[in-house]
Write a structure and sequence with these properties.
The protein is mainly alpha-helical. It folds into 2 domains: 113 residues, no CATH class; 33 residues, no CATH class. It contains 6 helices and 3 strands. α2 packs across α5 and α3 packs antiparallel against α5. It is globular and about 35 Å long. The two termini are 19 Å apart. The model has no long low-confidence stretch (mean pLDDT 79).
Amino acid sequence: MSRRFFAVLALVALAIGAAVLIYRGPGQPFVRGHVGDAAATMLVYALLGFAWRARIGVRAATTFAIAAAIEVGQTLWQVDGAAGELLLGATFDVWDLVAYAVGTAIAASAEIGMGRTRVVFDPHAKRRDRRAAGRVHEYAIDARTDTTTDA
């Protein structure tokens, strides 16, 4: 997947995180606690995508493992201050693990979905097939093998 995808995913995650922090409507504790956790996990997935070229499943498992380790660590340490609580959390909550799984699934699904097809303008199609001259061609991408086939 391209670095542009991970940049967009990181920006989306940051935008969701910012929206969560300023949200004051109904269900605010749920939104703050769980939607924010899902967005944070999406950000971790995007950062791993920048730094590490790995299979989607490996990157997703690593993202969830990092988030789960921080969550379990909350049983061992005490965080002081708003910044520490925002980054590492304050108390262990099993439902946070569900939010992490959802955030990881959203990020991995977006990567799989974006990697399935590419639309490419082929200016040299005229040489191969006069009927397809200058047409836009769609190629299906197999995300598991990175092979391309005509769709």
